[in-house]
Design a protein that fits this description.
The chain has about 130 residues and is mostly helical. The chain has two domains: about 1-80, Multidrug-efflux Transporter Regulator, Chain: A, Domain 2; about 80-134. It has six helices and two strands. The protein has helices at about 10-15, 20-30, 45-60, 65-75, 85-115, 125-130; strands at about 35, 45. Strands 1-2 form a two-stranded antiparallel ribbon. The protein is elongated, with a radius of gyration of 23 Å. The N and C termini lie far apart (about 75 Å). The relative contact order is 0.08.
Length: about 130
């Protein structure tokens, strides 16, 4: 008889470099399936939980939203489906990342101008504080 490896929540957290509370949160919002329970009512996880949690973690690391991850997970369970929907989600996310980068580049330019415009002196004559005042 083949025995399936079982993990406690702590072992799962370690295996996926994730906080225990994060795992519980993902279970509450449905990103992680509810685990089975031991006779002592402890959560029992298997390899599939580890794979799914690593997927969620990697997607979060790449900045995908919870809803995007939920959609990707649903699609991942449909192996025969056309991947155009996955591509659309990734392209939408890429566009959002590129907009944020553009915003950060503009912010960097503004801050650089403020810092380079500082001539020293006293707080009363501070160009940076002056620029920030309404």
């Amino acid at each position: 008889m083949t025995q399936i490896a079982a993990f406690t929540i702590g072992a799962l957290a370690s295996a996926a470099a994730t906080n225990v509370e994060t795992i519980r949160y993902y279970e509450r919002i449905g990103l992680m399936p509810k685990p089975s329970r031991s006779a002592g009512n402890y959560r029992i996880y298997d390899h599939a939980h580890t794979v799914r949690l690593r997927f969620v973690r990697r997607a979060r690391d790449l900045g995908f939203t919870i809803e995007q991850i939920r959609a990707l997970l649903d699609l991942a369970d449909q192996a025969d489906r056309d991947c155009a929907v996955v591509d659309a989600i990734a392209r939408e996310h890429l566009a959002a990342v590129e907009r944020k980068i553009d915003d950060l580049d503009a912010l960097r330019g503004e801050l650089r101008a403020l810092v380079h415009g500082c001539a020293g002196g006293t707080i009363g004559d501070c160009r940076i504080l002056e620029a920030l005042s309404p």
